[in-house]
Amino acid sequence: MRAEILDFLRQNQGKYVSGEEISRELNVSRTAVWKHIRALKQDGYQIEAHTRAGYCLRGTTGRLLPEEIKAVLTTKVMGQEIYYYPQIGSTNNEAKKLAAGGCPEGTIVVAETQNTGRGRLARGWFSPYGKGIWMSVVLRPPFSPLEASKCTLMAAVAVNRVIRQVAGVYSGIKWPNDILFQGRKLVGILTEMSAEMDAINYVVIGMGINVNIEEREFPGEIAATATSLLAVSGREIDRRMFLAAILKELETAYHLVQTGGFTSILDDWRSQSITLGKNVDVIGPDHRYSGLAIDIDNEGALLVKTAQGVRKVLAGDVSIRPVV
Ligand code: BTX
């Protein structure tokens, strides 16, 4: 009922509607209307109340509340179920629990802040309150577990497209899971999976997108390597519109993959990559070498040309050498 009352106020945004009118239109008691309005105000909605005129919605909350996202969502699968948390440990952990419990494909977990946001190899992810999109999406892809790592490439292509189109920031993808602008990280993607020998139970794609973080807010250890859309473009971005655009783009890309395989996504990835054609250092648990990043293969592995021949990088850290 809360969502319906909010919808009704939205349809009449800027105008007063009486409690009686809401109660009549939505077939709910006046007391219930009053209680729901109070809850909406507590959530941060700017609702003016006037004894005679009634209620008037002046502004929405800047939070990523499910009803806010749903009001602008145009997808069929992605984000049809939304779990929202003002604060959480890690959205990926929560999404994995929900996925193991059988939640439908496309379910998302979104939080205003994460206390223990994770990157790869148990690294931390800085997730300040209300300033980014800290979100995880549950997929149940019909393909083999060997293909799961390509979900990271798919998500990177989708997010990078939205950054370019909506924020107007000409970012690029660094293999395998980062989106950078002028060498600084705007986005990190963490894909995790649960699978049997030949089938995937679920894939969770976690995205950390630095949206409205001011340059000076980044902690010292990442101050020189991280950036945000606000810092780069100089303007604040409506996070819910941005999130809805990402889910739409992800849905399109996922549909494409399911119907035609990863080929077109890999081509898009190549054209948006900032790794290919660069000299890179590859650092793994038991190796370290340098070479020229020449391509990604059909598995999504990075191909690096070294003095000893072409080496295939499936996992590990790749750093791009600055041009001197
Ligand atoms: P990664 O291992 O490639 O990058 C992690 C590294 O990035 C950190 O060690 C740190 O140096 C740097 N870093 C930390 N926070 C930020 C930030 N906000 N901006 C730029 N650089 C940063 C990348 O892992 C994958 C990150 C995924 C994060 C999402 S958020 C939603 C979901 N839930 C969760 O716990 N993780 C994912």
Automatic annotation (TrEMBL):
Biotin binds at residues 90-92, 114, 118-120, 185. GO terms for biological process: protein lipoylation; regulation of DNA-templated transcription. Keywords: ATP-binding, Biotin, DNA-binding, Ligase, Nucleotide-binding, Repressor, Transcription, Transcription regulation. It catalyses: biotin + L-lysyl-[protein] + ATP = N(6)-biotinyl-L-lysyl-[protein] + AMP + diphosphate + H(+). GO terms for cellular component: cytoplasm. PROSITE patterns: BPL_LPL_CATALYTIC (PS51733). InterPro entries: aa-tRNA-synth_II/BPL/LPL, ArsR-like_HTH, Bifunct_BirA, Biotin_CoA_COase_ligase, BPL_C, BPL_LPL_catalytic, HTH_11, Transcriptional_repressor_C. It comes from the Bacteria. It is an enzyme of class 6 (ligase). SUPFAM superfamilies: C-terminal domain of transcriptional repressors (SSF50037), Class II aaRS and biotin synthetases (SSF55681), Winged helix' DNA-binding domain (SSF46785). Residues 67-258 form the BPL/LPL catalytic domain. Pfam families: BPL_C, BPL_LplA_LipB, HTH_11. The keyword Repressor applies. Its EC number is 6.3.4.15. Belongs to the biotin--protein ligase family. HAMAP family: Bifunct_BirA. Acts both as a biotin--[acetyl-CoA-carboxylase] ligase and a repressor. PANTHER family: BIOTIN PROTEIN LIGASE, BIOTIN--PROTEIN LIGASE. This is Bifunctional ligase/repressor BirA. It comes from Methylomusa anaerophila.
